[in-house]
Sequence to fold (1054 residues):
Amino acid sequence: MLRSFSVGVVAAVAATIPLIVVVPAAAAPADEAVSVPAAAWTPGQVNRAVVGGAPPAGRAQKSRPAPVSESGAQSWACTSSSWGVLPDYSMERFKISDRLQAGVNLANGNLWIDHRDLTVRGTGLNMNLRHSYGYYGEWHLNAGRDMGLELRTNEVLMPVDGGACATFPRNADGTYGVARNGVRASMTKNVGGSYTARFFDSGETWSYNADGWLLNRADRNGNTITYFYNSDGSLASMADTQGRVTTFVTTNGHITKITDPSGAVAGEYTYDANSRLTRLTDRDGKAVSFTYNADGQIATITDQIDRSWSVEFSNYGDVTKLTVPRQAGAVSASFAYDTPVADKTTYTDPNGNKTIYTFEEIEGRQISAQDALGHTQSQTWTANSDLQTTTDGLNNSTTGSYDTLNNLISTKLPTGATSTIGYTNTALPNLPTSVKDPAGNEITREYDRAGNVTKVRSVQLDANLDYRSYSSPKNLLDFRLDANGKRTTFGYDQAGNLTTVTPPEPLGVTRIGYDSLSRITSVTNGNNKRVDYAYDKLDRVVAISSSGTTLQSMTYNELGNLVTRSTPGVTTRFTYDTYPSSSLITSAKRTQGGATETVSYNYDQAGNLTSLTDPAGTHTYAFDAAYRLTSLKDAFGQTTTFGYDNADRRISSTFPGAGSQTNVYDKAGRLTSLTAKNTGGTELLKATYNYTLGNGVDSDQLQSKTIAGTTTAYTYDALKHLKTAGSTSFTVDNADNITNLAGTAHTVNAANQLTAADGDNLGYDKAGNLTSASVSSMAHEYSATNQLLRSTSSGTETFKADYDTTDQTQPRTITENLNGNTTTRVFTNTAVGLTTVAENGVRTSVARDPRGTLITEKVGEARFNFITDNQGSVLATLDTTGKVTATFTYNPYGVVTVTGASAIHRFRYLGGYTLRNGQNHFGYRYYNPTWGRFTAPDPTGQERNSYAYSQADPINNSDPTGGSTGSTWGAAVGGLVGGIVVGGLAASCPLTAGAGCVGAGIVMGGLGGAAGAGLGSSIGGGTREEVRDDGLSGGALGAFGAGGKFVKGLKDLL
Fold:
């Protein structure tokens, strides 16, 4: 496995600190009050007075030494293609804080440092300021003359965010070709001599004058960030898309102060006598400092908590060693290069394990990686630096094809499943207009002149799936019609901030308030319940309140890690240590009423989880040199071992004394069979999976499965909804609503709410929460932030819950009263998921691997082993002698049929916890498998239907988070592309890497990362561009560098 850090562990650890800014949720009232932290900060009224004007004529004077270019506006100069980060660069990234990161270019050893100075949410474009360090000891600001073009005779070099340069070759006719290095952008020299760069996927444009000075950036709708200069060419001010002005102070040719639109000092900068940046201070007064060696290269980075990161270089200027200041003792990563041509790099991680990377000699693109066990993965590129093939350790290749405009036009799995993408809009030739999946289902997409999606349509159904209309002057989304023609309307203030969302009735209007920097300060839901948010100076949420009561408060350390989370009566404190990948949690101590509970974590020097201690005891993990889990010694005394193939797929799990589970995969990495045997070799259970259509063509959806000798065949409609499962049929409307489930009619209203099923009439509040069911006279009560708190049946309490967070991700206790039997559960949530449940005082504990998969279980004093399927659902439990004690069979939507002593096993569908009432707790929401739906709308806003489960394809998709549908087997190219098109989601990153924002989500990993950045940062003024650049720094197309980066394959780039 070509990675040096366990991505699953890192993502899971991040997820243990729940996403607290998803629109929203609240803890149950308790006795102890929570106060707003002193760090809460409210910005003042904004400045709208521009300072400066047009850039000076001719070449700008350089404020510090830089190589001489032929002409243009350069201060910082594009002298080397190895600066910064570009889509085809392979980077080893080190996250220092939530605002600071470092990276090493694995091809050439270049050191890259990136600091986010300021982010202000805007309309269409956020205003982001970043300082980046690159080759020759140069620092780059992504604004002003550092962004000026370098105009050469045969090419134009364009600096991009992060300090890299995109190269546009000049054609014989005087026009310019598409940018190299995978930057999907064009350069046009306009009449009069000015220049315009346009990014294909986002539609963003950057405008320059004839001397190459950057004048403005604009989104596809013309919302513009404008730059203003002093007479000496230094940056004086910039106005964001809402007219708010950020100002700059330049001293002796260097920016020494940045003042944000509210008047707060956002950054202060100190330089040494050699004009090198030595210290930068953020808006909260926290500083990062740098020292340099005799060659002018950065030698140390002292972070915000005064820990020193050190860097060593070869005589050629390549990074050879980077030392991480871990509290438990510093650790180092080292790099060795072939010289003088660096076409091979050996990376040695802090554990001493080596990964060898091979690069093209001329272009420097990564073509292979060999892990410490000798397993090799490879990839090939097009001339434009688009991934053409990715090949795993078993020589299975995924292939992409491109047209002459470098648009991806098809993808083919190793098993043959092929999806095609069409581009027929001549005015917007780089935006996809159709996608056809392996089964031939085709979805089309239309755009307005600016490139905004206006219509998504199914060819087979001859029906609109999504219709959108935009309004001037900012061309913002005015209304949207879903696949059933139901309208959602959006309202804005004069600046362009979204202020109202009016969904179809009976849902109520959601109202959103902002501070002067466009950070969301209040959300009033359809029930007219308002939740308020407070932030610190670095845009981190520090308090969530409602009706004058603080529901949750948070404090952070200087690196941006959450260190305390308090809800009424409960405080949880987190500790961390620094590892190459990021800060990793080392303990979570929960205190309530004087009682404490601590979960602790240990890691090896590279950041792999080596032990987890919860109330059940300590679980210990061991890895091979490629960082594949080889054994798990659970807290119950058993050591389970694991085996893998050369493509890093788990092929065996061996339970001592009980037996084993073996897995077989096809060339695309999809599970094709699993077999459970006892130690004597007797087969206990077998399941097989088939993806081939009746005509022999490979598909991207499961066609049939056989479990314990019973075969179920599946068919799907033109929108990839499940249509039949064996003799059971399903009818789904175009908006993903089940209208008939196995013969039971479902009535759905305009808001996609199930209102009647099997004689049961259902009611909802105006926020969308299920409040009543007629058959059982059931009533449900919710908190101000939409947590299910209490349920009654004919006035008798049947359900009661309290939570440790302001959403439903961290339930602490749930009490159920069914048929006169009361069950109270106390939950312990950890970085790998729920691991301990005390039910009426009897503890059930499970051991999970670092990715959260269930492995073993202890109920009271009895121990069991889990047999799990391709979705993570439990198929059977084995006792310690290899006897099957219980089996679990699921209908497509998760209704379970059990045999044996199954009542004691509550971890079932998708590995989630099943309540006595039959519902599953999945992350943010409760799921009712009988209805095949969630009981409340998606709080993250990521689903196209807020209630539907897995987009009505529970066979190939799953949603254990309650917030985001994902492919079960991770290789559904057609499904992924179709989903993107059906959702009408165009990439919105200014600089895309082919993967665009989707790639960034992959890099961040898990709900705690992807949703946290995409939602949490966004709501607080953070930046999706930062997420994108995290992706560009080694994950989205870095492909398989060390540090958690490996061959993703083309399927992950869609």
Remarks:
- Helices lie at 7-15, 973-983, 996-1004, 1006-1019, 1024-1035.
- The CA atoms of residues 598 and 652 lie 33 Å apart.
- Residues 91-328 form one domain.
